[in-house]
Amino acid sequence: MIKQILGRIPRKPSKSSQNEAYHDGGVNGIGPNSINSSKSSNSGSGNSRTSNGALAPQFSKSNQSKKPGQVGPLLFSGAYEALPSFRDVPSAEKQGLFIKKLNMCCVVFDFNDPWKNVKEKDVKRQTLLELVDYISSVSSKFNEVTMHEITKMVATNLFRTFPPPSHEKKALESYDQDEEDQMLEPAWSHLQVVYEFLLRFVASPETDAKLAKRYIDEAFVLKLLDLFDSEDQREREYLKTILHRVYGKFMVHRPFIRKAINNIFFWFIFETQKHNGIAEMLEILGSIINGFALPLKEEHKLFLVRALIPLHKPKCVSMYHQQLSYCITQFVEKDAKLSDTVIRGLLKYWPITSSSKEVMFLGELEEVLEATQPSEFQRCMVPLFRQIGHCLSSSHFQVAERALFLWNNDHIRTLITQNRQVILPIIFPAMEENARSHWNQAVRSLTLNVRKIFSDIDQELFDECLATFQEDETKEKETQEKRESTWKRLEAVASSKSLNNEAGLVSRFASIAISTSQKPRATSGS
């Protein structure tokens, strides 16, 4: 009886359950009214990123265990109203309002559904725009608390995991970034403003680099570099500008940034051959290389040999070749002794079956040769002009034409003229065959122009090469005739032997048949 009475008395909720329920609201300040909804959502396994990197509006126990100072996204789960404008509060309260607005912008919305939380998304965008205006007009140095809140808001909104790329299921051979439908980030209306905010924070004269390096640290920089794999080109353009500003402002991070980019290149070249931001990283490096002090450090030369030159290897080199060619040329202009290394590297990765890549390589080769000194040119001219000779005799007219255009460059033509005793005998057979029998009229006319250049400069050498070519041609004809006559003799011998073998085989089979037919008779007679 007493147990039944006690069972009807309502029990007082425990403190732990109350704290758990209130904590689910996070900074949003969700009160007791949301206890039931938060408890029902705790059964999920955790917050999950959507395809655009936004957080799906779910609660989990992992959110409950977060420490107050820990950086992490907050979930929209209740009222989300705009805070007062900076113009409506006294100057003394602007700093506190700035922190509140930063915390407010740590809420991440799901942009997969464009009709979900439309009002709240607009409020957040307007708040972000206010933050951009405020950070541009601030006139006092940012303190540590402010920097912490700034980097927390930026990390919450930007750092995310990308969905599988749209070209993942395609064969590597058929992958071409230009042909893919580029995915546009659904949350770009917010991300763009956050990127603009970060850019202005880094570029602001009120940002003390010595203090800010504690928050924009190596882990932060690595996360920024991971974002370069975004398929949205607008995002990569912002990242390129921001990373360049970070490199310029935080000198302590410069070696780390170069090493991190180097590692991304290694992963791309030797593992995946899939990355969306190689061109943008090379564009940053082009500016960095331009600022290298002379003489170049050994570290920079190793970067050229181990990372930049092997970037010619992937099949999708056309995506970033223009930026790569600029970086390579910058190295040669900085140190002319590197031209031999670069040219031999190009020859190592020279394409065999792709005519379009050959045209690109010839264009890059011209830029490198233009910055090459005669002493370095002499070290690599033999293997170089063997390859150019193959290009001259290419049946693809664009390859042959691009190779012949090298003689239009004054510096290259001077280098060739000075070393004509070595170069002309190497390329003369290809030029002569082009002039006689190439199917393309433009290639034939360009070849005749190049022949005229050599004949005008050194007629004696030209005549020697022509005589040697004719002798080799005569010997080749004689060798071909001998080869044909040898084959004819072999065919005659083979045919005569085959007839003799057939006759021998017939007589042999006949004798075997007679002997086998007589043996049974002898056996029966006995």
Key descriptive features of the protein:
526 residues; mainly alpha; elongated; disordered C terminus
Describe this structure in words.
There is one protein chain. This protein is an all-alpha fold and about 525 residues long. It has helices spanning about 1-10, 15-25, 35-40, 60-65, 90-105, 120-135, 145-160, 190-205, 210, 220-225, 235-250, 255-270, 280-290, 300-310, 320-335, 340-350, 355-370, 375-390, 395-405, 410-420, 420-435, 440-455, 460-525; strands at about 75, 105-110. It starts with a helix and ends with a helix. The radius of gyration is 38 Å and the shape is elongated. The chain has 23 helices and two strands. Helix content is about 65%, strand content about 0%. A two-stranded parallel sheet has the order 1-2.
The largest beta-sheet arranges its strands as: 1-2
Question: How many strands?
Answer: 2
Helices, by number, come to 23
Fraction in beta strands: under 5%
Quickly give the structural class: mainly alpha
Residues in helices, as a percent range: 55-70%
Which series of helices and strands comes N to C? HHHHEHEHHHHHHHHHHHHHHHHHH
Question: If you average the pLDDT, what whole number results?
Answer: 81
Silhouette: elongated
